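Page header: ASSEMBLY MODEL / two components / 1018 residues total.
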Amino acid sequence: MLLRHSDGPASGNGPVLPELHRRLKWIALVGIGALVLLGGRLWQLQVMRGEGYYERTVSNVVKERYLSSVRGKILDRKGVPLADNRPAFNIYATPKQLEPTVREELSRLLGLSGDELEKVDERLAIGKKRDANRPIMILEDQGRDRAALVEQALARLPGVEVHHEPYRFYPQGDLAAHLVGYMSQMTAAEADRLTTQGYDTSELVGRYGLESAWENYLRGKKGIERYAVDARGQRLDDKTAATLIEGDRVIGAVPGANLVLTIDLELQRLAEKAIAQSRVPAAAIVIVEPKTGKVRALVSKPSFDPNVMTGHLTRQEDAMLRSDPRKPFIDKALRATYPPGSVFKFITALASLEDGQAVEDESIVCNGAYELSGTTFRCNGSHGKQDLVGAIQHSCNIYFWRLAERIGLDRIAEVARLYGFGAPTNLGLNGDAGGRIPTKAWYEQHSRYKVGYATNAATGQGDVEVTVLQMAMAYAALANGGTLYVPQVVERVEASDGRPIVTYQPTIAREIKISADALEIWRRGMWKAANEPGGTAFDHGHVSIVPVMGKTGTAEIRSRTRKKEEEERDIENWNPKRSHAWFSGWAPAENPELAIVVFIEHGGSGGRVAWPIAKQILESYYGKGQVTVDPKAPKPKQAP
Amino acid sequence: MRGTGLELPRSTIGVSRWRRFRAAVDWPLILTVIALCTIGLLNLYSATRGTRHHAKFDTQMKWMVIGAIGFVVATAIDYRAMVRLAWIGLGLAIVLLVIVRLLGEGAHGKGSYRWLNLFGMGIQPSELAKLMVILALARMFQDGELRDVPAMIGLKAIALAVPVGLIAIQPDLGSAVLLGLVILTVGFLVMQSVWPMVHITLAGLLSIPILWEMMEVYQKNRVLAFLDPSSDPTGNGWHTRQSIFAVGSGKIWGKGWGEGTQNQFDFLPEHWTDFPYSVWAEEWGFVGSVFLLAIFSFLLVWILNVALSARDRAGAVICVGVAAMTFWHVVVNIAMVLGLAPVVGVTLPFVSYGGSSLVVFLCAMGLVANVSLRKHGY
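Prediction written out in full:
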């Protein structure tokens, strides 16, 4: 209708452009066709698929970011931190947005070294491959100064972000390193498993010790922040963001729970210091409270600095640690097992006394050698005629071999199991090992039982293998009169604000039914060993400020120990052929507060090497105030 | 009135000169153009608001004033005078195109030469060339069928093809194709027989493979990306995908003026130049999108109406040319925004940001108003 016929031109000769008139229907056809095409497409996009596109444009601008939760602290019983968090600044960049000029600017601003710049480029390349739109960390753990410089210049550095991310920090360095553990990047297998639990692949996970075993308590819960960005990934201000984001913009992170340990950091430090000063190459010390089974100190040496492990260990450092023949990554207190030697003799003694196969005043003559079915076993000396208490005092082997002859291997194994040997202590840490208590059946299974095996087992040799922790728990049971506790290292779990979440009570593994008389005889022997001349410990020093019970052990190494000495690094005092040195005991003698086991790997004689370390620990611990003087205690005597 | 060619309708004799002039002016055309310009400004304001591009609004206002002056000038000077000088004008346009090729500034470093810096203002000779080609077409077809000797006809046809070629090698394929379409459309609509144009069209289609070989890599990539936008979502398909998201997300009623997240947050680079319809569609929805299409349709119908009522062939051909130019700009631009055509630099008349396009379209509308004003009397 708008295309009315012209009412001009005045000439009246008809239209000036008749061709156009003729083709009006074609024009209409093309015009309507174009309208239908465009209108139809609009209908399709906006009406039919509009909802879907709407959703996508919202996700185009709204992004999510995890808010890292602050990891829980690990504290000693008095609240001194063993694992804490310190502020760290990480600089991130989104590879897709990072123009070369921005990289130059960043480099100029921070004065990046060639190495650093190389690392930045390397990480950017990795990020580009992974997801070029996602920020990747290019500079890790930068100082406050650098972070401030970058933050001030953010406007000139599109695609760069500074994140404040707390870093794990171990203020005590390598103190109790095996107990506390460390963190590291997750492996590919872990990444598959953990990302379903809300982890990000860039996160660190607890790798060792408590950090690993208590990961679920320590890590807390990550929060989510939703924010809006434009096409360049620039964050929009909160007011604009609020109009775009439905629901909560920030779901706050829940900080991880703190672990309060039973560990007495002071005692732990004394124990580690004693090892360091005695310059033994490898050792383990466990100190527990006999009345509760709470672990007061847990030492394994050599160790590592968890700060170094959690950061980025260089390849050389890593290789150095891993090739160390002393195996710094094995927890010698509870993962590694060793022959216990004479500290194990209480099993033989108690089993014999319970069975009536031994009496206190029976005297047996030791002439230094013992014949059994054609084999000669040698004692550590020629002790002459002595009763059971004297045999404990001198650590005479022959007395116990005779007893073993009477009661047999299986009876020894039975009592050993009662005291917790041969099964994990259930501390729940670092692969707490069970050790080995051989029986006749065990030997038959593996080869053939020989009567000499009982002889070996009676003095903690041969195939008997225990952990230092098991020994400590067993001596705690001797000290408290027969209650075997499950060792406890976590006192309670606290929320980040200090509110207790769980408080753990001591757990009894079993009450050991051994008569008080039998125990008393063994204790008397221990007293003499530590406090009377001729005692295996007393001969190497005496503690005067607190009455100490003690038993030494020197566990011989079987000659089949690998002969790789040529390959092994030259480490001071390290001789893999030498015996293991043990000391087990407690203090004060009556009303015991601490049961202590000192183990020196290939240390040699228990009395000469292990006992002085225990002595130093106890003296320095009780020397600071808690002095209990036992009137019965003999006069102090200097160690030879 | 003699000399300006302005003859007023007889029915208005006896009324004052001003009122007669007012009655002769093509108000529906002017109002439609004002409506489109307003929509363009509204849209540009929303598209650049709060960004570092907000100065573009002011720039566009200045161009609009210049365009309005252009409209008045293009209306005031008798179009027959212009048609008489059409070949000279075309020659001038060709010279400018050659100059821009030699001295022009690359647009955004994309390696093409489209801009001439004239008194501090960026000018695209390709836009001016469109007007000159339309006037030349009017000159060519003003006497009914072509009466020249075949050699002369061929020469004129070549003269018309030269700007197309020059624009194509800038390279600005979109504008070149568009100008070609305008010439073909005018030919189809005003020649007695359509066969010559059919032949030319067929020849053009057959030359596509040759053109393909001549294309720059980025042009080929754009065409390929159009054929499969998801193949390279962050590269050449990015514009198309983001534009489709923007349009679709407007749904029926739109997100509201200034509320389009796609354009507000720069998901569409340079959306004010080539993708203003996407901004419009996101913020005003299906209803607003169809409304804008309807205004363009009305404008086209109205220009054709002027063509039908023109007082001579030259005037009618001018109107057909302007209508063809407007039609193809609108269709190609919107088809591109809707993902129905490859991304080419073709503006949406009056709505796109950019001085050259705005001024040229306002001048073109001035020409239509010119023809409309002088349709009465001999």
